[in-house]
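Reply to dn_fold:

You asked what the input looked like. This is it:
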Amino acid sequence: MPFWMLSVLTGGVVLLYSLALVIKPSVYSSNCGDLPKHVAAKAGIVLGSVMLNVMLLWLIPHPYDSPEFVQVVLVTHCLTIIFWTDLLWFIIPNRVIIPMGLAALLYLSIYATQAMWVEHLISGIGLSAVLFLINLVTNKIIKKNGFGTGDIKLVLILGLWLGYQVFWVMYGAVILGGVISVIMISLHGRKKSKAVPFGTILGATFFAVQIGTYIWSN
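and this is what came back:
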């Protein structure tokens, strides 16, 4: 199969999978409920998601017959889905995470050099291990997890895809998450404030890092 056909096929599959967000969210997880009934809310989610993905593909140009194009399409679409599922239902679906991880391993097995394998494995496994250790500490001290299991799995997969760039994404996510937590506590108090959807924040900072990298390099 010519590589451009694989690119088109990949784009079509992830686009259809993304549309399930407004048609039948339970495709991702049985715990995902219905979106708001208002048509404008659904239209806003679809339009905003499409515009964001198109903007990233425009800002980070890759030939459509290149492996980098497939990488950008897969990561941006998967993170778009996770952005909304975590924001609306506090769920990072395994039905998105597992294919995303398998695709990362397939991508690395085909295109990665030995040095690239080392970089991406250190980034994914190392950073997710740090989050796991943080959970152990917070469980001992305050009897709560600092990060959800889905957050840890997402960081692992992002590390496999992005390599060392995931540390910039995580750095931005921690700062943004901290700011949001402080605002929520100041408005609602510690007991009434809700958990921060870290998967949503990771998605937002990933997009911000990509845009910032483009602006900085130009």
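The chain has a mean pLDDT of 80.
Hope that clears it up.
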